[in-house]
Amino acid sequence: MENKNSNHGEKVLKVAIAGLGAIGRVLAKRLDAGDVERCKLVAVSGRDPIKTQSFIETLNCVVPNVALNRLGALADVVIECAPAAVLPQIVQPALSAGKKVIVLSVGALLDQPELMRPVQGEGQILIPSGALLGLDAVTAAAEGEIKTVKMISRKPPIGFKGAPIIERKNIQLDNLEVPLLLYSGSARSAAKDFPANLNVAIALSLAGIGPDKTMIEVWADPTVVRNTHQIELVSDSALLNMTIENIPSENPKTGRITAQSVLALLRKMSAPVRVGT
Questions:
Q1: What is the pTM for the complete model shown?
Q2: What is the crossing angle of helices 257-269 and 22-32, to 10°?
């Protein structure tokens, strides 16, 4: 079918998705439906071949299921929605091919600092706002002097199931009746204890004063029904107090707004007018 923008001579961004969990499936369906102008889904990479093929058959346009390290050869932009452990398999080949990679497993970048070093050509890692707010303001504040950044994160207890710190300390979450402080410390250490829960904290730290100076509190809170993040930043240009309450997706570790943030970033990449820093 002819692309609806082809008459205008506009470039269409070819997009591939690594990982077909809750976020990856949403993104694939939205791209397949043509919801983001000038973007076309061209490939996916799913861990389970049978489930992946079944999902592909629900799409309007058939796309191949390929190995993670081949996505960069097929697309202009690769969206990483996969387990943190496989991040290098996605990012390194794509960057070497001069492609852009939208990374959601932001915490894994701290263990793979070589991925963030400059590369030749147009290769670039893009980190969306995800479930966080105010990253534009934090980035602007970082052009001056940021004195302190603290984030308090609260999620329903089910959102922390499987986190390394929960298993290591044998913390019982099933019958929790009052808020429980799970962690207090730097964003860098939090990334190791909560690799699937606190990518927002690492994004905040990279936008501001770094993962060692950004302080985090993590609470399992049975009194909340939404993933809540409260941020306080003190700088020489502004005092920021920000709170966001995210409605969880079908994966309780992740808010619905995360997938929408990726779609907004894709739209901004080819928009004639870009709003925000």
A1: 0.90
A2: 40
